[in-house]
Amino acid sequence: MSSVPKIAVVYPASIPWMGQFLDGIRRFSGPLGGWRLYTTPPALASTGERTLAISSLVGWQGDGVIAVVSNEEEAREARLLKVPIVNISSWEKESFGFPRVGVDNFQAGRLAADHLLSRGLKNLAFIGWDGVYYSDLRRMGFIGRAHELGSEVSELLKHPNEFDEENWGQRLRVLSHWIHQLPKPCGVFAVHDYRAQLVIDACDVAGVRVPQDVAVIGMDNDVIICRHSMPTITSISRNSEEVGWQAAALLHRLMEGNADLAKDEEIRVPPECVVARESTDTHYHGDEVVRVSIRYIENRLRYPFNVEEVANHVGVSKRKLEMRFRDCVGKSPHQFITEARVARARELLNRPGGQSLQVISENCGFVSYSAFVSSFKRVTGVSPKEARNQKTTGEISEL
User: Fold this and answer.
1) Mean pLDDT score of the chain, rounded to an integer?
2) Is the peptide bond before 185 cis (omega within 30 degrees of 0)?
3) Across the strands, what pairs with 124?
4) Rounded mean pLDDT of 90-105?
5) Beta strands per DSSP E along the chain
6) How many other C-beta atoms are found inside a 10 Å radius of the C-beta of residue 322?
7) Which residues pair with 102 in a beta bridge?
């Protein structure tokens, strides 16, 4: 191996989360002296240059490859390179003989269901790919969690080739017809953010309000789509930096000669969080007291207050409020308040040129800095300082 390892990272240029993935590789390789990365920047496709592909690496004198290996042809080309390879594709269930790293798509589905159900929704729906592994996993996690909590799920599955054959108008007509038939109010989990955008467009065609009639959540947290949609789209952040770190760590093990240790290994990284935006920004709880309480809490997160103050605002006893919260939301009002404060803290932590941790603590209504640190670590598993060092996106996180 050369003094500075040469690593190729091969992926479709259109993947929105690869910047964070590459950050994770850098974070792992930095303490080792760094790796020289060969990859395709997203802007390359518009310059007329060819994107990096496994087939184009023939003759390349490198040390390892992290690649999207989605079919047998790509696998054959990868084996010809005679270097350690980590697969980051979840298109097929088969990993083609390479160790694989990716987001835990099953858990992502469960997270989407929890988010929609926490809004008080009883009717859920899923729209995704038919026969695509990552879509199957997200669907199974979503439906399984919904069934655990007593909800049924409507589905619309399409084969990718079938979707490609439809023009824009056909796509919207099919979706608007499906949406029109869904029981309302309904929460829809779209397999990725582009599909979530199509659902919102189809709702507009069908005369269905988002989020009042249909709440929509996507996956990938593609900020180009999510921030510029109307309404903006709630999405699941993949934890792509951690996926990159884990892929680099596994490749390092292979390059160090631990082939048997990593053979056929699959590492699934839990998704980071729900990035809550306007497409799910409402509550459907049948209990008016709970709805008013949640709105009061969300509007006053920057100020210190306790459960007693919320109970006084809605005109019930603390005990009554706790019982009604547990019935409707599945958690105590104290837990709901704490998680909402931590979610706001994560938003502030991730903003460029952000505030100091002390100021963030004060702006999230924590009674003390120590309470902020302990609450944050209890909810997220890391300290505020660790979270700031790890995260690069600037969106509110629902925990």
Assistant:
1) 88
2) yes
3) 153, 187
4) 93
5) 6-10, 36-39, 64-67, 85-87, 100-103, 123-129, 153-158, 186-190, 214-219, 234-237, 266-269, 273-275, 397-398
6) 17
7) 268
Is residue 116 within a helix (H) or strand (E), and if so which, with residue range?
helix 105-118
Q: Residue 25 has which token pair?
A: 């590789």
Kind plus residue range of the DSSP H or E element containing 161: helix 160-164
Q: What is the pLDDT of residues 10-58, one digit of tens each?
A: 987 667 788 889 999 999 999 998 999 988 776 565 666 677 888 888 8
Residue 84: C-alpha distances to residues 9, 79, 98, 171, 381 (Å): 12, 9, 9, 42, 33
Q: Is 341 helix (H, G, I), strand (E, B) or coil?
A: helix
Question: Closest Cα partner for 15 from 72, 75, 74, 70?
Answer: 70
Q: How far apart are CA 175 and CA 198, in angstroms?
A: 8
- 48: phi then psi, degrees, rounded to nearest 5: 90, -5
Q: Under CATH, which number does the domain 105-238+275-280 receive?
A: 3.40.50.2300
Domain locations in the chain as residue ranges: 6-103+239-269, 105-238+275-280, 288-393
Q: How many CB atoms lie within 10 A of CB 289?
A: 18
Cβ contact 183:157 at 8 Å: no
Strands 266-269 and 100-103: parallel
**What is the pTM assigned to this prediction?**
0.79
| CATH 3.40.50.2300 is held by the domain 6-103+239-269 | yes
Tell whether the torsion through CA atoms of 49, 52, 56 and 60 is positive or negative.
Answer: positive
